[in-house]
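Subgroup meeting minutes
Present: P.N., E.W., G.H.
Scribe: E.W.

1. P.N. recapped why we're keeping a running log of single-chain structure predictions: easier to compare across weeks, and new members can see raw inputs and outputs side by side.
2. G.H. added today's entry (450 aa).
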Amino acid sequence: MDTNDWILKWIPSTYRPYFVLFGGVLTMMSLAIVYSFANMLPYLVSYLHFRVDESITAGSLIWIQTLLSGVPFSMLIGGIVEQSMGGRMAATIGCALYTGSIAFSSIIISISYGWLLVSFGFLPSFGSGIAYNAVLITAQRWFPGRIGFASGVIVAGFGCGTLFIAPLQTLYVNPDHYTTNSEGYFTQEDLLDRVPSLFLVMALFFTILQLIGLLLLASPIENPFEGEDEEDTVSLLPDSSRSSIGLKGMFFSSSFVFLFLTLFFSSCWVQITTGLYKAYGLQFISSDHFLSMVAAVSSIFNCGSRITWGWLADKSSYQKTMVMVSLMAAFLTWTLPLVKYSDSPILFLITICLLFTCVGGTYSLLPFVSSRLFGKEHFGVMYGLVQISLSMAGVISGLFGQYVLPYLGYDRLFLVTGFFPIISFVLTSLIHLTPLVTMRNISDSVVVTA
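Output recorded in log:
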């Protein structure tokens, strides 16, 4: 593919798509603060509890996880800005807001938890949403016939960021391997003193990744879907084309509703488990460095699974792979309480890694099916609308963390949470019945042509 970009023009055309993927992966790695939040939570809650407000608990901080998981319309705005200004400019705007607000949080954390929700929750999430969608769309433009592969690699970058972020956090804040007290708080003064400057350290690391990644992020000038194979171009819409239906028709379609609700219920279990697993692990595992290692290793599974699930979806179908992801997620969430009673750190590591495999599947399969269903012309806007469900799920996870967790405890909370992916399983099993979806490329059974 050809391009007008002054950097990519120096790269042979055969390798340009892969350089763009590499730049996209670096950028997405820098945006992955949400998956390292569980690792940060004990440090943040300890600082806030002893230095700002004694009423703050681990359950209270789940609202930061809620905001980091998605702000309404940020990805929609990212899709719109990408269409009008290009992928690099849209991603640059998002990254600047994301990284700048994280750096500013080094000051805000000492003022109030409420303002920290804005500087470390709302603003980074808004910027991340803009950049995320811009990077994803740009990558798909370079791989029109391999959308599942491109989407999987890009979201894999988002998933593997914790591999580097979590160890960085722990080595900087807790180099002396301190342990928490009986209530789950760090009380050591020198550790607490390092918490505010952690935001500056992370912002510097993210800036380095973004400077390299954004330079390689540019769009091709030719039709990105030119030369697609038959499997990618076959219409998923019966009796009419996607273009004749338009955005309004897609938005009010039952297919959109099913995808929206699938992501909503899937995100509920993702946000609850990924936000609280370290605080839960501290109840029976005393080593903070071991739990940081769990966060790092699980990110490898998060990363690799996104590529694997995308590849499986390309080879089989969205429906078959998403059914597998949902059932695995329910089973693993229900087994988390058993891990505690086994008192085995290794079993905890294995369970969390497998859970993040399901996380990776969820967030690679939804953009895959959205691109297939809505087409390149409407993908940015429609997927941005689907992503609004993340914010709604965040409200549920926040309420669960602050009000349900103190009442039920971790064990029963995870038992309840396991029913969310079951609902996603039911929705996915029935999506082929929605009128905008033919069986081909979506269902795992009969292929029906439009």
